[in-house]
Design goal:
The complex is a heterodimer of chains A (145) and B (315).
Chain A (H helix, E strand, L loop, with lengths): L1 H17 L3 H23 L7 H17 L2 H4 L14 H4 L1 H20 L5 H22 L5
Chain B lengths: L1 H24 L7 H5 L6 H11 L1 H5 L18 E3 L2 E3 L17 H10 L14 H4 L4 H11 L13 E2 L8 H9 L14 H11 L5 H4 L17 E2 L6 E2 L14 H10 L12 H8 L4 H13 L15
Antiparallel strand pairs in B: 1-2, 2-3, 4-5
Classes of the chains: A mainly alpha (145), B mainly alpha (315).
């Protein structure tokens, strides 16, 4: 038993150590999110055939990604410094930042609950989700060159 | 000391002449009646496209407006720049607080000459330095479309600028340097129509260069670094280099650029951000041909290194 507890805590430690840096962790989540959106976009653009099962799997992955996005944990005070494009406004308006993220999470849940039946349905959902990306990046990300 | 007297006399005369010339040169210039007659009656349906190409709603709708509220052009956004805070005015059809009482001639003078109905210079935060390149027929169509938009009561607050930018007359001299209907990028004979159409959209109504090009000491766009990117006029960020040498879009195909303008997704599925979010919403309203034309033009402009300093991440 002791061994098991030790093993679990070591695993947990290793897991957190892999992403000890919140900047890297949040960037990894964002990259994954982009990749998932990209898979949906390929279907919308007609580069891949519409497969309802595959689309639903991707939408579920997007929801799981959104659920992992803990703003407090990923954007601790001081993490506006370093190699990041996070805008200072995140810390000035944490409530607004969280609301923007919550909106994305809610929209992924809605998409999973009523998955699209065809390309047009998917296109509408991707527009909504893409709009959420833009709405947040409009205020809370800053290009630094 | 007769020579000194003469000299000072000459200086006074010269100085007076310079001041008089400056005063004359800085006078607001309106169109003559002949040019206005060329406008003709506009077509509101066509004007809708120009409205979105021109991005009017990005600055003139109430801050944060979504959906149909973006057509309520009450103004009030605050653009915080080094010159002070510019507040885009109410350009809704309200006759008292907006531009509902403006004639087509008043509208054309504002768009193409930067002159208000009362004959004052408008601040070039309103991008008439780009709009000056627009076709009169498009101005007429835009005027007709804006007539279909709602009247919204309430004046937007005044600009809050610091001296000497409070003196509007000075803008007259600025216009002599920077206001011209000529295209920025001369394209050779035989340039495909698609590229020419893109040039018109980007350099004219789209006014892309206003943010994407660095400015000189007098806040004029540096045409020699056209679209090379710039330190943002607002806040601390940068506006990316969108010439073929720009790191952000160097590897994008024309189809990638057009798709970004339509969907807001970059080829690697990052999303549009910052002030471009509002712009992209407008670009999504254009036709696929218009977006393809913009993309073709962006591939045809001269490449430039970034118009902003490299970012050094704090470590």
């Amino acid at each position: 038993m002791r061994k098991l507890v030790l093993a679990i805590s070591m695993l947990a430690f290793a897991g957190s150590a892999a992403f000890a840096d919140p900047i890297q962790e949040r960037q990894a989540l964002m990259k994954e999110r982009g990749k998932l959106a990209g898979q949906l976009s390929k279907v919308v653009k007609g580069e891949e055939d519409f497969d309802a099962g595959a689309v639903l799997t991707t939408l579920k992955a997007l929801q799981a990604n959104a659920e992992k996005f803990d703003a407090e944990k990923l954007f601790p005070a001081g993490s506006d410094q370093g190699d990041t494009t996070a805008a200072p406004k995140i810390w000035e308006d944490m409530a607004g930042f969280k609301a923007a993220e919550d909106k994305f999470l809610a929209n992924t849940k809605e998409a999973v609950a009523s998955p699209p039946g065809d390309v047009d349905g998917l296109k509408a959902q991707l527009n909504t989700l893409g709009g959420d990306c833009g709405a947040c990046h409009q205020s809370y990300r800053i290009k630094k060159g | 000391m007769a020579w000194l007297k003469k000299l000072s006399g000459a200086v006074i005369v010269l100085g007076g002449a310079a001041a008089a010339a400056g005063w004359a040169l800085s006078a607001p210039v309106r169109f003559d009646a002949g040019a206005i007659a060329q406008l003709g009656p506009g077509d509101a349906a066509k004007g809708k496209r120009i409205f979105y190409a021109g991005g009017c709603t990005s600055c003139h709708s109430k801050p944060g407006a979504q959906g149909d509220a973006r057509l309520q052009l009450a103004g009030g956004l605050e653009l915080k720049t080094p010159f002070g805070t510019f507040v885009p005015p109410n350009i809704s059809q309200d006759r008292k607080d907006g531009i509902g009482a403006w004639s087509e001639e008043d509208f054309a003078n504002a768009m193409l000459k930067g002159v208000s109905p009362s004959g004052e210079h408008l601040y070039p935060a309103f991008p008439y330095a780009s709009y000056a390149r627009m076709k009169p027929a498009d101005i007429a169509d835009l005027y007709a479309f804006m007539k279909t938009l709602p009247a919204v009561a309430g004046k937007a607050p005044d600009h809050k600028l610091s001296f000497p930018f409070t003196i509007r007359r000075g803008i007259g001299l600025w216009k002599l340097l920077y206001l011209s209907p000529e295209p920025v990028i001369a394209l050779p004979d035989g340039t495909p129509d698609k590229v020419l159409a893109g040039r018109y959209l980007v350099e004219g109504p789209g006014h892309c260069g206003e943010c994407h090009t660095p400015r000189d000491f007098a806040a004029g766009v540096k045409k020699g670094e056209w679209l090379a990117g710039s330190v943002a006029a607002e806040g601390t960020g940068v506006v990316p280099n969108i010439t073929p040498d720009g790191k952000s879009i160097k590897d994008w195909s024309e189809a990638d650029i057009a798709n970004y303008l339509e969907t807001g997704f970059t080829p690697d599925f990052d999303s549009v951000g910052g002030a471009m979010v509002e712009v992209q919403k407008n670009m999504a309203q254009l036709t696929a041909d218009d977006r393809a034309a913009i993309a073709a033009y962006l591939k045809a402009v001269p490449p430039h290194p970034n118009g902003y300093p490299a970012h050094k991440p704090a470590s």
